[in-house]
Amino acid sequence: MSMEQIFENFVRLEKERDYKIEAVAIADEEKVLLEHHFYPDKVRNIYSHTKSYMSLAAGIAMDEGKLSLSDKLSDFFPEKLPQNPDERLLRITLRDLLTMSSGFDECYLMGSGRRSGEGIPDYVRYMLARPVKQNPGEKFHYSTADSILAGRMIEKAVGMRLGEYLYGHVFAKLGQGWPLWENDPEGHPVGGGGMHMKLTDMMKLGQLYLGEGKWKGERIVSREWTKESGSFKISTDGHPEKNVWKCGYGYQFWMCPYPGSYRADGSYGQITAVLPQQGIVVALQCSEEGDFNRTTEFLHENLFLPLVEELS
Fold it and tell me: CA of 98: how far to CAs of 40, 48, 252, 296, 300, in Å?
C-alpha cells in the first residue's frame, strides 16, 4: 500500500469513526505532500507543542554561545531566591528543566492552574519558593513550570522576550508570521504552552528538524541540537505496553515507538512527529472534544505503523 493509499484510508476511517481529528498532513523537509482538513482550516491553540518551539530557541541560543545545558537556574535569578534556599534548588540546570527532571516533582503552572491564578504575579519567584522533593536530573515529572523556567532562562541569556527571539530566528524565516501566544502576568511568553498556529505552520518545526536544522538551504539551528533534543534522555512515567506514546523524553520532545522518531506534543492531539528513517513528518490537530488517549491506538494502527512499514 502506498503512502497516498495509507493516507486516504486513514481519512476514510476517521470520517467513519470520528475521533475528533481536525486535520492531518504529511510532509518532507521541503513541502507538504498530503493534507486533509475535517474541519475548516484555522489558527488554533497548540498547547504543549509550544514546548518544542521553546527547545528550539534554547538550541539557537546555545549555538550563539549565550547559553549552556549546565547553566543553573539559580544563577539566572539570584534576586528571586528564597532565604536559605534548598541545596537541591541551587543545583537545577537548564538540562534538568528541558528533560522535565527539575526535582520539584509536581505538576505546576499547567493550563488549568494558570487559568485559576496560580503563581501570580511572578512565575519565577513562585517556583523558586516551591519545595524541591527530588535530586535534579534523576526523575521525570511532566510539569509546564519546568518549560516556563527554561524559557525565562533563554530570555535572560539573549536579552529579549522569547517571542521576539523566535520571530527573528525562526518564525519570520519559516514564513509563520507572529503567532498569537499566551503571556504570563508580567508579559513573558509562556515557554510551555499557549501558542496558536495552523496545522501546516505548526508542522514546520518538524520539517526543520527533519532537515537537521536547515530550512530551504539556510541553517536555523545546529544539526547537533536537532539530534540531541530529539533523542532519548530520560525514562517517562508511562507504560509503553499500555500506551505506545509514552516511551521516553528528550529536550522537550517525546519519543515515539518507531526507530529514531520523536514528536512535539500538545494537549488533545496537537502533534508533529518526525520520522527521519522514513523521511517524513506527520502532523495532526485535534479537537478539545476528543479523547486523545483513545485516539492514539487508532493513529498507531491506521496511520503511523502502516507508514513506517511502507517507507522502511
Answer: 34, 13, 6, 24, 26
Residue 93: closest CA among 125, 68, 124: 68
- Rounded to an integer, what distance in angstroms lies between the CA atom of residue 267 and that of residue 193? 9
Q: Which three cell numbers stand for residue 185?
A: 502576568
Distances 1 to 11, 137, 158, 308 between C-alpha atoms, Å: 15, 44, 48, 12
Cell reading at 50: 509550544
Q: Is the peptide bond before 40 cis (omega within 30 degrees of 0)?
A: no
Residue 209 is placed in which grid cell? 528538524
Q: Can you spell out the DSSP letters for 187-203?
A: S-B-TTS-BEE-HHHHT
pLDDT tens, position by position, 145-172 = 999 999 999 999 999 999 999 999 999 9
Query: For the whole prediction, is pTM greater than 0.90?
Result: yes
Q: Cα–Cα distance between 81 and 300 in angstroms, integer?
A: 45
- The type of residue at 171 is F
DSSP-assigned states of every residue in 276-300: TTTTEEEEEEE-TTS-HHHHHHHHI
Radius of gyration of the chain (CA): 19
φ, ψ of residue 158 to 5 degrees: the values are -95, -10
CB-CB contact of 282 with 303 (8 Å):
yes
pLDDT tens, residue by residue, 25-62: 999 999 999 999 999 999 999 999 999 999 999 999 99
Secondary structure letter of residue 250 according to DSSP:
-
